[in-house]
Amino acid sequence: MTRLYTNNFSTTLNGDITNIATVLTVQDVAGLPGIGSGETCQITITDGTNVEIVTATAVAGSVLTITRGQEGTSGTAFVNGAIIELRATALSFIDPAGVIDFGGATSLEIPNSATPTVNADGEISVDTTVADFSHGIIKYYGGEECAVIAVPVAELTSPVGGDIVAYNATNDEFELVQPAGGGGGGYTFISNTNFTTASIIELDLLNFVHYRLVFKNVDRTSSSTTLRVAFSVDGGSTYIATGYEQFITKTVLGAGANLVTTAGIASGIELSNPIDNIAGIIDIIQPSDVAPTHLKWDVTWIDSSADWQHSFGVGVLTSSNNVNALRIVPTAGTMAGDISLFGLNET
Q1: Backbone phi and psi for residue 320, each to the nearest 5 degrees, phi listed first
Q2: For residues 345 and 182, what is the distance between their CA atoms, to the nearest angstrom?
Q3: How many CA atoms lie within 13 A of 192 on its CB side?
Q4: Tens-digit pLDDT profile for residues 242-281
Q5: pTM greater than the 0.70 cutoff
Q6: Whole-Å CA distances, 286 to 18, 197, 293, 326, 332
Q7: What are the backbone dihedrals phi and psi of residue 166, each rounded to the nearest 5 degrees, phi first?
């Protein structure tokens, strides 16, 4: 329910009412809020001796529908001429009901202290002494005391994929940081792309020295095409079409396990004539000293002749800059499936 307010509404009772009457008639409704569905207002009735607070739930002309004996008062009989006023009552301050519109305010202060207690469902407060330790946290109760950790707003100006929230003891605050990989920590999940009719997939590569791209049951819609993975050093504005050098690649064709060695790749890692069940990994390794980017892959798929193909190899991209984006694109048609990206750091 939404409680309505207005300033200085006052009129008088038109006719007597009993102590159980649920409607009353007033002399004048000018200034009284229109009471719609789901809305109420608190009305005070007084004859100079007796005072009763009622809740008005509807108004039609000069007739108000009311609920009697509110906020500790009792239903009382009043005679013609009794004063009718819309006042701010105790309930207005200690137990606001329904929607309260603070849309015009620039800020709102909620209860806060050094050691607030929240111990009933729905209670909320700001604890000014625990983290974001130097800045305070919001505590609320939902079966137990819980907390919403804050980070400085400055941390949100340039977040990057894979960021986690971590405590900085020096600054006494929580901050967004890239997780430390390696050292037994394993890969960090960066993103997952699940698609049904994609003609191109582009992914950002940020803040890791080793990336692993995982294909999971990717299918193609057109036969006799090539699926190519190309790389960018300018955030995806352009994709490098030359400068790839391949050391060795071997393709196992069908059940006969024939080994085919191919020298050189023109414009990226290429999978020839894939149709169904493309699965495997591509590793992109670029040391922090900006050495050439190393590439390694191990991928299987079914081709248009229903033969299994297996491609694995190693190579380098001889650009002097580290790659920071990759593109997966077929030469025709679309793709469907699931691709995940993981990252690993040196320390």
Answers
A1: -80, -5
A2: 6
A3: 6
A4: 777 765 566 655 544 444 444 445 567 777 777 788 899 9
A5: no
A6: 87, 31, 5, 14, 30
A7: -140, 150
* CA 95 – CA 306 distance, rounded (Å): 71
Backbone angles phi, psi at 154, to 5 degrees: -60, -25
**Residue partners of 306: CB distance under 8 A and separation at least 6:** none
The answer as to CATH 2.40.50 being correct for domain 2-94 is no
Which two three-digit tokens encode residue 178?
A: 């890239």
State yes or no: pLDDT of 131 exceeds 50. Answer: no
The CB density around residue 188, as the number of other CB atoms within 10 Å, is 19
| Whether CATH 2.60.40 fits 188-344 | no
Q: Do the beta carbons of residue 208 and residue 268 sit within 8 Å?
A: no
Query: Which carries the bigger pLDDT value, residue 337 or residue 53?
Result: 53
Burial of 73 (0-12, 13-18, 19+ CB in 10 A): middle
Contact 132, 174 (CB under 8 A): yes
Which amino acid, 234?
Answer: D
Nearest CA among 309, 244, 306, 243 for reference residue 271: 309
Residues 6+ apart with CB under 8 A from 334: 197, 198, 199, 220, 221, 222
The one-letter amino acid at 205: L
Is residue 164 within 8 A of residue 179, CB to CB? The reply is yes
- The letter for the amino acid at 95 is D
**CA separation for the pair 51, 78 (Å, rounded):** 10
C-alpha distances (whole Å) from 238 to each of 191, 193, 235 are 22, 21, 8
pLDDT in tens, 200-227: 888 888 778 889 999 988 887 776 577 8
> Position 291: which residue type?
A
Phi-psi region of 143 (alpha: psi -120 to 50; beta: other; left: phi over 0): left
- 63 φ, ψ (degrees, to nearest 5): -105, 125
**H or E segment to which residue 165 belongs:** strand 164-168
Q: What confidence tens digit (pLDDT) does each residue in 4-16 have?
A: 889 999 999 999 9
- Per the document, the length of the chain is 347
